[in-house]
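new request in #modeling-help
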Amino acid sequence: MNKPLRRIAIFCGVLILALLVRTNYLQYVRADELNSREENRRVRIERYAHERGDIIVDGKAVTGSVETNGSDFKYKRVWKDGPMWSPVTGYSSQAFDSTQLENLEDGILTGNDDQLFFNRTLSMFTGDEKQGGNVVTTLSGAAQKAAFEGLGNQKGAAVALDPQTGAILALASTPSYDPSVFAGNSDKDSEARAKLLADKDKPMLNRALRETYPPGSTFKVVTASAALENGLYDSIDEPTDSPLPWILTGTRNPLPNEGNIPCKNASLREALRYSCNTVFGKISSDLGNKKMIEEADKFGFNEEVFTPVRADKSVYPEDIPSQNAMAGIGQASNRATPLQMAMVASAVANDGKLMQPYMVAKRQAPNLDTIYTAEPKEMSRPLTAANAQKLQQMMETVVQSGTGTMAKIDGVTVGGKTGTAQHGLNNSEKPYAWFISYAKTDKGSPVAVAVVVEDGKANRDDISGGGLAAPIAKAIMKAVLDGK
Amino acid sequence: MSVVTNTTTIGAIDAPSRRNTELMMMVFAVAISVFAYANVGLAIDGKLPSGMLGYGAGLVLLGGVAHLVVRKFAPYADPLLLPLATLLNGLGLVLIWRLDQSQRLIQDAERRWGSYSPDAPKQLLYSAIGVAFFVAVLMVLKDHRVLQRYTYISMVVALILLITPIFFPAVNGAKIWISLGPFSIQPGEFAKIFIAIFFSGYLMVKRDALALASRRFMGMYLPRGRDLGPILTIWALSILILVFETDLGTSLLFFGLFIVMLYVATERTSWIVFGLLMSGAGAVGVATFEPHVQQRVDAWMDPFKGFGQGGAGASEQIAQSLMSFGSGGTLGTGLGQGHSDLIMFAANADFILSTVGEELGLAGMMAVLLVYGLIVERGIRTALAARDPFGKLLAVGLSGAFAIQVFVVAGGVMGLIPLSGMTMPFLAYGGSSVLANWALIAILIRISDTARRPAPAPAPSPDAEMTQVVRP
């Protein structure tokens, strides 16, 4: 019986050998592939095993990490003043991934970015715990606070830019949400997030970047610069060729003005001061759809803007003449994000030079070495310096003695434009109150602002850019000026 | 070891007993387990685990008792079997204790059953009972040939053990449990020993008939119909178990066991060919209409299909197990530092090898597999050394069953073959498994003791003349 016994011994040896080969194949050959599978929870466990780097405003972190219990994810993200900063930071949740800066700068914040390779290698030798780097933003805490508190419990958004660099100083959206409530991965977190998603006020919508509104009369600044750039009118004080009433191109309907204001043949300056629909509707019509689109494009319309967080495309559409005329006064299919209108104001304030908006000033390695510093970049030149200065005069008149007097700041030159954008079918819903403005000192303009308030609660007759939005813009500008 | 050198013609030439070798290896096996235990504690809590002393003392006691019993009752036994089993049992305890510390498994248990109780203390108790079994077998069973007398009783016992679970509710899709109040046993584990005894006894008697009374056909020996009877019966039985209890592993084990033993008994290759053909036909036939088996095969073909959608549980477990092995890599994450508990259900039972793979790595896996390989090969060596055909058949049957079980379980969790619910001997959590395997080792040790025991010296004959002893 010994011969078959020896064969059985070999057979059993082959069974064990097959297992040995298989384990080698799995653990040596396939290990990398298995470890990088998206089903592999270990990847995420690793991700939350270390403290995440911080997002920094004014030298102080607006984020943090806390250790959690009862989960295999060790650290959880927390935010200071979450509702105020969430339009900037986005969220980073153990269960629901991340958005905005938390998402885009994830490599730095987790410490996995290739730029941190040297740091990682070093800490491998020194045996330090892996750490994330920091992201330093361009935002101003004071301006953000002014914007957030100014909006208060109204629905709306505010954006402030430094016209000279394009740095974003404030980016507020209300109602907002606290990303801390669903940063973990418990059932409570899921419920909190579901509640936010179900809220009809859409607190998780970043209105400053991701919502487009009809810009209303604030768009007249773009129409005016199109008129100047195309030489339709050279002087801002010469009377324009504007009848009253003016019949909307291609229709038999007159374009109404808001109230009984002196718009017949009004100069550009006066037309902007009183916000004459007839004058700017006719300019848009006279220039035609193509030239209007060209000018709007130079201000950044019709293209997504990356700050690096993506802002929705603002739209100045190709359209029939009557609709083009309406678009010229910020109605019809004309839509803009608050960021876009802040860019319009900042281009005018910066003598016609539009700077690329950005919100990441620096990236720091875990040891606080700076590994990236942002360089301000010019985006385009929507208008010449001379025309920009003419437009500045017009906007300053609006604040001095026009619809925007609420934004006046003592001792500082302020230019602005109000807007009351109608929306809803046949103007059935409550209009949006807009205000765009900039402040100017002898060293140029440090701040340009756009504010939109879509307040359904206010009395309809009270809704006007000058009344609702301008005080918020003023508070933001003051906050920036006081900080200088 | 005193050899009676008398004034006889032939002096008994003695095999060394190797008991001291065994003792050294036992010390080694216990020490490794205790160090592993300390390692887990340090890795998880940063301090030596509080149960360290109790656990260490327990293992030393179990190992010591087992060794002393072998020294007393089976002094010529193979010196490797006991230390290897102790090492696996000790490592298994550490791994189970390590998985007890997993928050994820604790929460899962609380969600499933509303409460959680650690498994390691129970496993320590089972191990103690297992060693008691081991001791009992060695003390009661003075000679393994006694078992021949119980050939048919063994068959009856095995059948009862196999059939009973049909009358109990299925647990996780397989009817392989007998639950009596708080206790539940997996009779398949014990049945494999009884069936090996039956086969040995039956084949020892019938081997000549099976081997010689056959017709030659196309170069192979075709058995006669009446000799084919038993194999057909067993084949049908294993398929029936598969169908009614959806127990893939056990049916595969019994069928493999029978083929191996038939082959050894008859020395006819044709039996293997028939066996493989029949099992292939049976497996394909069953797979076509049994959804449970189909699921297992699907999960084996594409373990990542439907991952995370809560659908196929088996598929997700295999995928998690594969990722465990991948995560371990060459050297492993270190005890207590992996995430093999992601397998969740049965992480410390059927899937315990994944924890070995993740935390001890490829190196640890190879070591553990080689330990199993060594046990099997020592068992077959015992069969080679045994002097009686019954002992040979029983030893090879038990070792073969052990090898097939290791292959089926390890191959299943590593995705080499479809998964089937059996436990890794000694390593996995489970009372039946530990008890049965200690009994199995005890029988092997008994056979090896008989095999290696020096032949008794002939009685001195006072009548014989003194002759000169010539040694070769």
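bot summary: Chain B has a mean pLDDT of 85.
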